[in-house]
Design goal:
By secondary structure, this protein is an alpha+beta fold. About 15% of the residues lie in helices and about 30% in strands. Strand 3 and strand 4 form a beta hairpin.
Length: about 140
């Protein structure tokens, strides 16, 4: 007797009612002359957060991975040492649905903090002048 595979319903938290998704793509720069067997070597990496339009989480995942691969592969060099290298796509660190219609002030990400003191929560606030977007130094 053949057993039917039950299609599971995707929970609301894992669906995007408006088709927008947030993904964080992890890229790393690797010099061509590095010893790739040493995983404890230091490197420079970027986590790029992108906004994607997709009907489903699987489509959003495919688009996020494609964006990561598109950003990878470019060659560059260290101006001080002359060493050449390339950008490597490591993978995704986050894929989340956006649950609100996008407009000015729409909530796109949230984090819950449970069991923290009021002092700790207040200490998380960053004054305007210390927000990275207001740091214009080179």
């Amino acid at each position: 007797m053949r057993e039917r595979r039950k299609k599971r319903k995707i929970p609301h938290r894992n669906r995007s009612p408006y088709g927008w998704w947030i993904a964080s793509v992890l890229l790393r720069f690797e010099f061509f002359d590095e010893d790739r067997t040493k995983l404890n070597r230091r490197c420079l990496a970027w986590k790029n957060t992108v906004l994607l339009k997709a009907r489903t989480r699987d489509e959003a995942y495919r688009k996020a991975v494609a964006a990561g691969h598109q950003d990878a592969g470019g060659e560059s060099w260290d101006a001080d040492t002359g060493r050449r290298g390339t950008f490597r796509f490591e993978g995704l660190t986050l894929l989340l649905p956006v649950h609100e219609q996008l407009e000015d002030g729409a909530e796109i990400l949230w984090t819950e903090y449970s069991g923290r003191t009021v002092r700790r929560i207040k200490s998380m606030v960053v004054p305007k002048g210390k927000l990275p977007v207001f740091n214009d130094e080179d």
